[in-house]
Amino acid sequence: MANHNLGRLTEDVKREISAALPEIKDPRVSGEIVSVSRVEITSDLSYCKIYVSVLGDEEKTDGAVKALEKSAGFIVRRINARIKMRKMPRLIFLPDNSQEYYERITGIIDKLHIRGDEDEGGDGDNDEE
Prior knowledge:
Elements: H1 3-20, H2 27-30, E1 34-41, E2 47-54, H3 58-70, H4 72-82, E3 90-95, H5 98-120
Parallel strand pairs: 2-3
Antiparallel strand pairs: 1-2
Helix pairs in contact: 1-4
């Protein structure tokens, strides 16, 4: 399968999973704001990693991931009904921690900027000789 076809398929799967979320009756999903942040499909269509984020804490995200794992059959049937694929990949739901990663990296960069300002000292811009 060409790379651009895999990219299109990945976006189609992401769209279908996102559309299926409101139909899942588990309160860990229906009672929360759940979104699919990223989907990765292997080139041989064996596995599909679905990264899920939930507005709230890590415990809610883990609960939503477990609920989605239980609802995988429903999601697979929905994908099969709407997308023609030669092979249905195994769905693997994972928590998306990219926001935590972003916050950690931003904190490190901010600390570097503060240290850089302190190292310059209070000399100002005295360029007189």
